[in-house]
Amino acid sequence: MTRRQILTAAAAAPLFAQDPASVIRVDVDLVNVTFSVRDKRGALIPTLEKPDFEVYEDGKKQEIRSFSREGDLPLTIGLLIDVSPSQERLIDTERRAASAFFRTVLKNKDMAFVISFGGEAELLQDLTSSPKLLTQSLEGLRVNASVSSPINQGPIPSTPRGTILFDAVYLAADEKLKGEVGRKVVLLITDGVDMGSRKTLNQAIESAHRSDAIVYGIYYFDRGAYGYHMFGVSDGDLKKMSEDTGGRLFRVERKTTLEDVFKQLEDEMRNQYTLSYSSTNPNRDGAFRKLEIRPKSKEYKVQARRGYFSSRT
Asked: I want to staple 114 with a disulfide (CB 3.0 to 4.6 A). Which of 44, 125, 181, 256 is the partner?
């Protein structure tokens, strides 16, 4: 496999096939939820235990079968970077900040991959635990404004000068994260504009749910690239993707640099919990089920995904 690969959903088989003997099997009836807890001042609380929480599915209380802090589970990170023309002047900053982030956040059990997206989605680095390889892949970040390769003529073609934001999230979750175990995160750096995706916002969110991935949107835009024409530039889609999947939205602003955002992300990912339960709902109909994790103390607020899709029989 080459280090750089165009991502599409055209192939009948997965793009990145695995040896069946190497796949880790898990109990598909277990619902796994990764979440964070903050106090009323917004500070992360990393010291709580299983008895401090209750879990409800569609309003019905569930029995927690397992509970752990983040250090007990591996972390898989998908870094998705918008390289459409409107982001051209931000790429150098993104490259430096992401490289420093990988050097500090990745531990022995952790892995990451890098995808750039503009008119097409491109795999710059497949899953690796090497910060060196990830840093090298970031050197491949470049403006991508149009589609010229016939490989992208499948279910997710792009339009010239498009930004396939929703497609990139869908592909990262469906093709790279679904088969992984442990905690799974998508870090999405973009100005929030989607042009040319075949997948919708809701389909991107569903893909993240089905792969148990948390999306953290990083809203970063160059006002000079738009001038006074800011129509359609919004963090609304990023906010919805993030909050629905258990993440949150970050904004790069005058007083909050991209480096600051990555530091906050590192703190959050190192202060998470994961719990699992077996649903009392026996139906295997593929339906969406609402989730709620309630802390027993009113002093705390839980940040978790809003639901999941049940498996089908």
From this structure: 125
Do residues 167 and 117 touch, judged by C-beta distance below 8 A? yes
Question: Is the pLDDT confidence value at 5 over 90?
Answer: no
- Residue 293: which residues within 8 A CB-CB, separation 6 or more? 33, 35, 53, 54, 55, 56, 275, 302, 304
Domain that holds residue 297: 30-71+272-309
Amino acid, single-letter form, for residue 298: K
Q: Is residue 199 part of a domain?
A: yes
Give the mean pLDDT of the chain.
86
Residue 211 is assigned to a structural domain of this protein: yes
| Torsion from C-alpha of 243, 246, 252, 257, nearest 10 degrees | 160
Whether 20 is covered by a domain: the verdict is no
Query: Is residue 230 very low, low, confident or very high in pLDDT (cuts 50, 70, 90)?
Result: low
Beta-bridged to residue 187, according to DSSP, are 79, 216
- 33: closest CA among 67, 72, 75, 80? 67
DSSP 8-state class, residue 52: G
pLDDT tens digits for range 265-274: 999 998 999 9
Q: Within this chain, do residues 279 and 233 fall inside the same structural domain, yes or no? A: no
Strand partners, 307: 290
List residues bridging with 273 in a β-sheet.
35, 69
DSSP 270: T
Residues 6 or more apart whose CB falls under 8 angstroms from that of 310 comprise 279, 281, 283, 284, 285, 286, 287, 288, 289
Same domain, 235 and 182: yes
Domain shared by 294 and 180, yes or no = no
Backbone angles phi, psi at 103, to 5 degrees: -65, -30
**pTM (predicted TM-score):** 0.86
